[in-house]
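Researcher: I'm preparing a figure for a lab meeting and need a structural model of a single chain. I don't have an experimental structure, so a prediction will have to do for now. The sequence is pasted below. Please return the structure as tokens so I can convert it later.
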Amino acid sequence: MKDETWKIEYKQWKKLKPYQIKLIDEFPKTQSQACLLYSMWREWMNIKKLNLSENTDVSNSWIDPWDN
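Model: Understood. Here is the structure written out token by token.
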């Protein structure tokens, strides 16, 4: 994932469990951890879209999280 700011914002916006914080801060070691990290990233994108939609058009705001 190119943009690491999502991790900071997500941790500020959500009350996370210790294992979620650890997963965000460290690289996933299993496929199930990668799936969980991806679902957190998608949730962050949905929150961000809601925040942005109040001020701007987000119709072209897709960012691929795995794009290097």
